[in-house]
Design brief:
heterodimer, A: about 110 residues, 7-stranded mixed sheet, 4-stranded antiparallel sheet, about 0% helix, B: about 120 residues, mainly beta, globular
Chain lengths: ~110, ~120
């Protein structure tokens, strides 16, 4: 069964450094998402992406964040200058037709900012 | 804006007992509702979803949920709890329109099964 994959599984970085989190969505899916979950808290939406454009973003997704689909396979989340409060589990998800359809989640990348 | 509220951050039930996890939603348009399960150190797995068809939805692992518009609820139930059901459960709502596909999650309910 096709799965969403994410790399790395864990990343430790210093405050102020740039990080890139990578995701490979399910191959025939057209909508892509990033969510994050701070330890002990609920899952929060960051951004949705369709047809090489951001379709929606949350207040969390400020200028420090960007997304890209560089090669038709990968979907990346970049944090330009990490802050302590960016420490969280980041989940990528994808689905075929957007709203109302099941989103399939990857296993997540645990980011720790020191 | 859409939102969900999960009552009870922790629920404990005995093995073999009924599981009831509560979720209430708020939505100005017909909602699409989901229950996801998260096992320790894993991602989110869909249990079931409501998309305006049958109000009683059956999912994986013996779980089901009933959509009740009058009560704005979508509670998750399982007749007989199993040890393997111990996990965190999230209720979520999404829209349908372009630009409103995101899932909005509740705060989650941690289910503990007592042997």
């Amino acid at each position: 069964e096709p799965e969403v994959t994410q790399t790395p599984s864990h990343q430790v970085t210093q405050m102020g450094q740039e990080v890139i989190l990578r995701c490979v969505p399910i191959s025939n899916h057209l909508y892509f998402y990033w969510y994050r979950q701070i330890l002990g808290q609920k899952v929060e939406f960051l951004v949705s992406f369709y047809n090489n454009e951001i379709s929606e973003k949350s207040e969390i997704f400020d200028d420090q964040f960007s997304v890209e689909r560089p090669d038709g396979s990968n979907f990346t989340l970049k944090i330009r200058s990490t802050k302590l409060e960016d420490s969280a589990m980041y989940f990528c998800a994808s689905n075929i037709r957007g709203g109302g359809e099941t989103q399939y989640f990857g296993p997540g990348t645990r980011l720790l900012v020191l | 804006a859409q939102s969900v509220t999960q009552l009870g951050s922790h629920v404990s039930v005995s093995e073999g007992a009924l599981v009831l996890l509560r979720c209430n939603y708020s939505s100005s348009v017909p909602p699409y509702l989901f229950w996801y399960v998260q096992y320790p150190n894993q991602g989110l797995q869909l249990l079931l979803k409501y998309t305006s068809a049958a109000t009683l939805v059956k999912g994986i692992n013996g779980f089901e949920a009933e959509f009740k518009k009058s009560e704005t609820s979508f509670h998750l139930t399982k007749p007989s709890a199993h040890m393997s059901d111990a996990a965190e459960y999230f209720c979520a709502v999404s829209g349908l329109d372009f630009g409103n596909e995101k899932l909005t999650f509740g705060t989650g309910t941690r289910l503990t099964i007592i042997p």
